[in-house]
Write a structure and sequence with these properties.
alpha/beta; five-stranded parallel β-sheet; 38% helix
Length: 481
C-alpha cells in the first residue's frame, strides 16, 4: 500500500494520521493512504494560500498561462498512470478514467488561453476628457470542495478558471478519491506554480469542516455534491461576505417522441444512464416515452443494457465498473427495493452480479424499471447509480410537464425529428442544460454548465461564465484634461 503526501505551502507534507483508500472493485485491501490533516493543518493551509495569493495575483497573466499549459502537458504525458489511480479509487473504467485525465488537461489549456485576454470593457463617460473602464480582478482565497464521482475533472473545472483569474485555492477532495486530486496538484506543482497558490487538504470532513468554512480569509466556496451538504454550506456563508457556488443534485430526464430514431435514442439513454455506473450529475435517470413507441423503445433499451459487461474498471472488456463504495451500492439497491415495493417492475438488473469473482466489489447491475408512476419516490429522488425509470405519456405537452415535475433542473434531452418540437422543448424544459438528439451528459469545457432550482446556484461553471464567480468588477475613471 502506497503512502502519499499532500501539497501545502509549495511542499509535500504528511502527518501521523492516515486515511485509507479502497478499490471499489475489491474492498478487501486498501490500495493507498493519504494524510488525515487536522484543523491546525487547515489553518496553516490558509496561511500559505494568503501568501500565495499575494504573489499569484501580481504574476503576469502570460506566466499564469505558461504554467497552466505546462501542467496540461504533464497531465497528458501521465494520463496512463493517472487513469489507473482514478479507476482504482473510484471504479470507472480505464477508458472513462483516461478520458477524465485528458479532459482535465483541456480545462487547463482552455483557461490558460483565457488568462491571456483582458477581462474588461471601455465605457463612455459623460464627463469630458475622461476615460472609464471596468475590469475584473481576483477575489482572493477560494475553497473548492469536490466529489468522488469525477475526482479529477471536477477539481480541474473549478481550479482552472480560479487560477487563471489570479486567485489562490484550498482543494478539499472527497475522502473516497483523494489520489486523483493529488495528481492534478502535482502537475501544477511540477509546472512551476508558486508556493501556496494551491493547497490540497486531505482529511475527514467531520474533523476539519469548521476550520475550512469559518476561516475569515475565505472569499468564496465552490462545491459539488449533495443538496443536503450544499444547502448547509450556503447557509453557513449567508451571514458573511463570502460567495457560494453549488453544483448539486439532479434528476435528469430524456424524452423520446414517437417520431424519434429509436435505436439512436436507446443507445444514448444507455450511455447517459449507465456510464460511470450512473454516477454522474448529468446521468439520465428518467425516460419519458410517447406511448405509441414505448414497447419498441423499451425493447431496444433492454438490449443495450444487457450488452453491458460489468466488472473491474481495469479489466479488459469491462464497460461498466462498480459503484464507488459499499455505502453507495447499498443505497442504490435500497432505492430499487423501495421502487418495487411501490409498484415498479424490474425489467432488467435490480441486483448485484452473481459472479463470485465480483463478490467483494461494490457492483449493481444496470437496471431498467418499468410501470413507474409519477407518484413513486424513484421518479423524484436522485439515485446516483445505474438505474433508469421509464414513464409512458400521450403527448409532447405531457412529456414536458413530466420533465418539469421535479425540484431539480440540471439537464434534459429530447429525441425527435421535428424541428419545431426540438425548439419548443429547448424553450419549455426548465433545465440549465438542454440536449436534442444526444445525451444529457457530455458538456465540453467551453460550454457554460449548471442547473436551475435545487440543482445549484446562479453561478455557472465552465466557459467564460465561470469567471464571474472567481472575479470581482472594478470600475476606473481617469480624467486626463
Amino acid at each position: 500500500m502506497r503512502s502519499l503526501e499532500t501539497l501545502s505551502g509549495g511542499g509535500w507534507v504528511t502527518t501521523g494520521e492516515w486515511i485509507d483508500v479502497h478499490d471499489p472493485s475489491d474492498l478487501r485491501t486498501p490500495v493507498a493512504r493519504v494524510p488525515a490533516l487536522s484543523a491546525a493543518d487547515v489553518t496553516r493551509a490558509y496561511d500559505h494560500a494568503e501568501q500565495g495569493f499575494t504573489v499569484w495575483k501580481r504574476t503576469s497573466p502570460f506566466e499564469r498561462a505558461r504554467i497552466m499549459t505546462e501542467a496540461a502537458r504533464l497531465l497528458r504525458e501521465r494520463a496512463g498512470d493517472i487513469a489507473v489511480d482514478v479507476t482504482t479509487e473510484m471504479g470507472k473504467t480505464r477508458a472513462e478514467a483516461t478520458g477524465e485525465a485528458l479532459k482535465a488537461a483541456d480545462f487547463l489549456e482552455y483557461y490558460a488561453g483565457i488568462a491571456r485576454q483582458g477581462y474588461g470593457t471601455l465605457v463612455h463617460d459623460v464627463r469630458p476628457d475622461t476615460r472609464t473602464s471596468h475590469h475584473r480582478e481576483p477575489i482572493g482565497v477560494v475553497l473548492a470542495i469536490t466529489p468522488w464521482n469525477d475526482p479529477l475533472i471536477t477539481p480541474a473545472r473549478k481550479l482552472a478558471p480560479c487560477l487563471a483569474a489570479g486567485n489562490a485555492a484550498l482543494l478539499k477532495p472527497a475522502t473516497d478519491t483523494p489520489q486523483s486530486a493529488l495528481h492534478f496538484a502535482r502537475a501544477l506543482h511540477d509546472a512551476g506554480l508558486p508556493a501556496g497558490v494551491l493547497n490540497v487538504v486531505t482529511g475527514r470532513g467531520a474533523e476539519i469542516s469548521e476550520a475550512l468554512i469559518t476561516d475569515p480569509r475565505l472569499a468564496a466556496l465552490t462545491f459539488t455534491g449533495s443538496n443536503e451538504v450544499g444547502e448547509a454550506l450556503r447557509g453557513r456563508l449567508a451571514a458573511r461576505n463570502a460567495r457560494f457556488q453549488g453544483e448539486l443534485g439532479g434528476k435528469n430526464a430524456t424524452v423520446v417522441l414517437a417520431d424519434a430514431e429509436l435505436s439512436a435514442a436507446a443507445k444514448a439513454v444507455a450511455a447517459a444512464g449507465f456510464a460511470q455506473a450512473g454516477q454522474r450529475c448529468t446521468a439520465t435517470s428518467r425516460v419519458i416515452v410517447e406511448r405509441s413507441v414505448y414497447e419498441e423503445f423499451t425493447s431496444l433499451l433492454l438490449t443495450e443494457a444487457a450488452a453491458l459487461r460489468v466488472g473491474p474498471g481495469l479489466a479488459a472488456g469491462t464497460t461498466m465498473g462498480p459503484l464507488v463504495s459499499a455505502r453507495q451500492r447499498d443505497g442504490v439497491l435500497s432505492d430499487i427495493e423501495r421502487a418495487v415495493k411501490q409498484g415498479a417492475r424490474v425489467l432488467i438488473g435490480g441486483d448485484q452480479p452473481r459472479d463470485e469473482a465480483l463478490s467483494h466489489g461494490c457492483y449493481v447491475n444496470p437496471t431498467v424499471l418499468g410501470e413507474v408512476t409519477a407518484e413513486m419516490d424513484i421518479w423524484y429522488e436522485e439515485v446516483f447509480g445505474p438505474v433508469v425509470a421509464l414513464l409512458a405519456v400521450d403527448s409532447f405537452e405531457e412529456a414536458v410537464a413530466a420533465v418539469n415535475d421535479s425540484d431539480f433542473g440540471l439537464a434534459a434531452a429530447v429525441f425527435t425529428q421535428n424541428l419545431g418540437a426540438a425548439y419548443r422543448f429547448a424553450d419549455e424544459a426548465e433545465c440549465g442544460q438542454i440536449a436534442v438528439n444526444t445525451t444529457t451528459s457530455g458538456w465540453d469545457v467551453h460550454h457554460p454548465f449548471g442547473g436551475f432550482r435545487d440543482s445549484g446556484s446562479p453561478f455557472k461553471e465552465q466557459g467564460e461564465e465561470a469567471l464571474r464567480f472567481y472575479t470581482r468588477v472594478k470600475t476606473v475613471a481617469i480624467h486626463f484634461g
